[in-house]
């Protein structure tokens, strides 16, 4: 009898082991599929819908005027050692890395501009912490040599005006460069350290304003159509392309609030009517007027507010505030795609995957896994089990 019972148990053990293996296989397939989709393929699916905007081109030297494809993003806020939790770093930095690398592969821009606040703790970082943060940034935002990456100084990179020092600025410029004027395919870009536009006569502010006045003079020289005996003709450097510049900075030019901003990535309704503080949320009126007068830009792009906005300043200069690129600052991050020529431009917005969409998919997958486990151990109510079995029989037929 004992041998018979042992034989029966052995016969029942094999089907049980097979069922457990089948359950383990199902769980593994579901988990891997969800991870691959939510952490990798979703970026291709979402960014595949983004396209470069069309811009008018004119005849130029026997052909069409060249078009520059530029990406503009802002406020990545890479967390540091002081306020950065390891899980927050892992989640949000992986999101930005995958979004950036996917955008480079799908859209193939020629130049990428990041409009400040690259780091969250640059104003506090020790030299070792700064080096570690830079290394992470360079890994996340790696790019081929044919793509240029240009970065504008933000207040979290070097500190607000009262925290900003020459040492922090030099430390930043050693990694990201110090150029303020860049010409690509006939398009002039002016990159401003807007943190230094305080207007109080400090050494750093005075040097920044002097450099901007020199850039203004060069831009004015490019407007002279008839060669003559002016100072512009006696300069050894070639003239800039005949093109009104694109102004890039971290702080927005002065506006009273976001009350006139709209769109799904604008500031929340309860925040739009909150007045902005000059020299903290936006540049002062005086600094804004100086930049518009000196540079006469045809387009202004800025960051800092983490939300989108489009405004027109005196003289007709449009400004576009670029939302944050990180899930840490908003649920629906995005970046701007620009097609630019020396005379015209066109902009479009490209959204990244929404964070709540990814979290919802993980929640749904967890619920499905729980149902699989409960069905396997027959812990669900009888009507549910009967329905489940009927569905499986129908699928087999």
Strand content: 5-15%
Ends: how far apart? 41 Å
CATH architecture: 4-Layer Sandwich
Strand order of the largest sheet: 6-7-8-9-11-10
The CATH homologous superfamily is called Metallo-dependent phosphatases
Report the top-level CATH class.
Alpha Beta
- Report helical residue fraction: 40-55%
Average pLDDT metric: 87
Number of strands: 13
Give the domain tally. 1
Task: Describe the model.
- With 397 residues, this protein is of the alpha/beta class.
- The protein has one domain (65-223, 239-357): Metallo-dependent phosphatases (Purple Acid Phosphatase, chain A, domain 2), CATH 3.60.21.
- 43% of the residues lie in helices and 14% in strands.
- Strands 6-7-8-9-11-10 form a six-stranded mixed sheet, with no helix packed on it. A five-stranded mixed sheet has the order 5-4-3-12-13, with no helix packed on it.
- It is elongated, with a radius of gyration of 28 Å.
